[in-house]
Amino acid sequence: MALLSFLGAIQQVTGSCYLIESRDGAKVLLECGMRQGRREEDEGNRAPFPFDPLTLDAVVISHAHIDHSGLLPKLVGAGYRGPIFATEASCELLELMLLDAAQIQEKDTEWENKWRARQGKAPLSPLYTTEDAEQALKQRRPQAYSAQVEVAKGVQVTFHEAGHILGSAIVEMQVQDHHLTRRLVFSGDLGNTCSPLMHPPTTLDRADLVLLESTYGDRDHRNNQDTLDELAEILQQAHRDGGNVLIPAFAVGRTQDLIYYLGRFYQEGRLPQQAVFLDSPMAIRANAIYSRFQHLFDPDDHAAIAHKPARRIEDWLPILRCTPTPEESMAINRVKSGAIIIAGSGMCTGGRIAHHFKHNLWREDCHVVFPGFQAKGTPGRAIVDGASSVKMLHQRIAVKAQIHTLGGFSAHAGQSQLLDWVSHFDHHPELYLVHGELEKMQILQQTLRERLNWIASIPEPGEQIAI
Questions:
Q1: Terminal alpha carbon distance of the chain
Q2: Res 61: pLDDT
Q3: What span, in angstroms and rounded, lies between the C-alpha atoms of 271 and 248?
Q4: Is 39 exposed, middle or buried (0-12, 13-18, 19+ CB in 10 A)?
Q5: Are residues 25 and 121 in the same domain?
């Protein structure tokens, strides 16, 4: 029978990776994600692949986020030269994400090696290079939603809208097993049905085996309107306090959502700040890709912010100022009050948000808004959990700012939305929970049993099952 190996995002949120092997010899890698968070995750990224990349026939990617695609250049560096299938929008975003990730690998390694040299330690090599990323991009094979494509002998794939970020997909994979066809459905990252711009996740009704993400398997998100009202009040309070508002945000997806919501506030007269800085070169470039794919937006959300189609995402928020260069970024630090600063990275593991924390996090009049999930081991998680200081840029920064978390802005489905999506399958397929911290998976597992009378399994890392 065909085999499925659980290689990544097993009992943890990041590092998505699954290997499908048919009895006829086809080998397809589903996802090639980077692990994010603690130091041991970086060690996992550097470990050899648990398969021979040269034996793969194809790679299938659900969407462009780094925890789903970030090891593609490493795979190519190890010799893989086959096709990489993703949706059309994801293929464009992959260029942005992978080249940026490669540059970070090279720069971070260069910085680390300076410190290692002072300590008499051997230098490190980057996980991969820009050359590896460029080669991976040459192997992209863009696909339209709902169009079936044979990715390897006897293996057909169809991408369906997942509603998570632009181009995100639910992956439906049909594997020919002699005279039988086995249908595997991977939810990918299912979108929050309240997320702006994106269509709701497509519901499917046929599968033999389902891999279900469980990032928020333990709870539902707060009501979207309540979350928006809370954000509006935070902005008003920050205006009264006289400080800046810092928003660490993922460049792809979360940033565009924030621009949409702030644009609505601006139009409604609910935005007291005088300037919104988008201090993320990647997010600025992502805006351009979102602008080119406006035909994929939910039409009601699109109409709500623009009476006529906007040529650019930035047109929705007239006070938005993009700062792509380092000089423009550093100039923001002269603004001590009245600004909203959106910068990466989303979990505060690096990027320009670290520099803004250096200048603002210790100020009591500063407000920090976390609009998304913070993984264990990240600086963002430490701040959310109440740390009195965090280490960034090789120094400790006191946390005296007012900290806010807005789970209602998550681009992931909450527990009830996960249950609703999986309940549409017309019989009980084998169900495996992936992409979640173990305790959250266990809560979802119990809830599935209680509400739907479904048995869900939680695989072990490296576990292999017959499809």
A1: 7
A2: 98
A3: 19
A4: exposed
A5: yes
**Are the C-beta atoms of 3 and 51 separated by less than 8 Å?**
no
Domain check: are 256 and 328 in the same one?
yes
In the 8-state DSSP scheme, what is residue 426?
S
pLDDT of residue 307: 54
With contact defined as beta carbons under 8 Å apart, do 84 and 57 qualify? no
Report the C-alpha gap between 102 and 132 in whole angstroms. Answer: 8
pTM for the whole structure = 0.90
Band of residue 305 on the pLDDT scale cut at 50, 70, 90? low
CATH of the domain at 18: 3.60.15.10
**Element spanning 134, H or E:** helix 130-138
Q: How far apart are CA 449 and CA 445, in angstroms?
A: 6
CA atoms within 13 A on the CB side of 142: 13
Q: Is 388 helix (H, G, I), strand (E, B) or coil?
A: coil
209 and 234 fall within a common domain: no
User: Taking 70 as the threshold, does the pLDDT of residue 309 lie above it?
Assistant: no
* Mean pLDDT, rounded, for 309-331: 89
What's the pLDDT tens digit per position in 177-217?
878 899 999 999 999 988 888 999 999 999 999 999 999 99
How many of the other CB atoms lie within 10 Å of CB of 427?
Answer: 8
345 prior amide bond cis, ω within 30: yes
The HSE-up count of residue 422 (CA atoms within 13 Å, CB side) is: 35
d(CA 365, CA 298): 37
**Alpha helix ranges (H) inside 242-280:** 254-268
The residue with tokens 């599968």 is 207
Torsional sign, CA 458, 464, 465, 467: positive
Q: Give one DSSP letter per residue of 189-248, joined into a string.
A: SPPPTT-SSSPPPPP----SEEEEE-TTTT-PPPPHHHHHHHHHHHHHHHHHHT--EEEE
Quote the distance between the C-alpha of residue 196 and its chain's center: 16
Asked whether the beta carbons of 81 and 288 are under 8 A apart, the reply is no
Calpha distance 456→211 (Å, rounded): 10
Q: Are residues 32 and 144 in the same domain?
A: yes
